[in-house]
Every structure is written in C-alpha cells, then in structure tokens.
Amino acid sequence: MRAPKTQTEPPIRKDVAELKSARNVLYMLVDDMRPDLQPYAQTFMYTPNLKALAATALTFSRAYCNIAVCSPSRMSFLTGRYPATTKVGSI
C-alpha cells in the first residue's frame, strides 16, 4: 500500500532587492583556541586566511565561559542556558 501523494508548494521566491540587502553571518565556534593568531597581533603563527577574514569582520577580544569544560560550555553558548540547567557534563 502506498502513501497518498502530497502536493508540494513551490518554493517562495524572494525579491532580488531583499536578498541583496540581507547580511551574511558566519558563526565560528572553536573549542580551546587561544588567541595566538595574526588577527590578535601575534606574529609567530602564520594564518593569512583568518587574518583576511578578521580584517573585514567583527573580531572579539574577550571571551568568557560558564564552565571550563568544552561540552558544557559549548552547549551553554548555543542554548543560552547554564550548564546546570542543560545537565550536559553534570557538575
């Protein structure tokens, strides 16, 4: 027995002007990455692509975490909830 065919709606077409005014967001989350890169004025690491990206983007110079363990801290950042609430890496 086959499931009945469902009629799919065509994709919504956005106005070209609306698409051009939209902002692009690149979200990069890296565990245990120290700011020993060229965008943070360090010269001993050669990171030309990150340097070029940071030149045209917003770069944060301070970072804080709720807990010093990767998984609970990452989950807290993604959900906006404390590690004790999400029960990830129970403390």
Brief overview, please?
The protein is an all-alpha fold and 91 residues long. 31% of the residues lie in helices and 0% in strands.
Supply the key terms:
91 residues; 0% strand; 31% helix; mainly alpha
Which radius of gyration do the C-alpha atoms yield? 21 Å
Strand content: under 5%
Number of strands: 0
Mean pLDDT score: 76
Roughly how many Å apart are the termini?
51 Å
Taking the sheet with the most strands, its summary is: none
Q: Regions with pLDDT < 50 over 5+ consecutive residues?
A: none
The total of helices stands at: 4
Q: Which class best fits the helix and strand makeup?
A: mainly alpha
Number of domains: 2
State the shape: flat
- The proportion of residues forming helix, as a percent range, comes to 25-40%
- In sequence order, what are the helices and strands, one letter per element? HHHH
Description of the structure:
The protein is built from four helices and no strands. The protein folds into two domains: 21-60, no CATH class; 66-91, no CATH class. The radius of gyration is 21 Å and the shape is flat. Helices cover 31% and strands 0% of the residues. The protein is an all-alpha fold and 91 residues long. It starts with 15 loop residues before the first helix and ends in a 5-residue tail after the last helix.
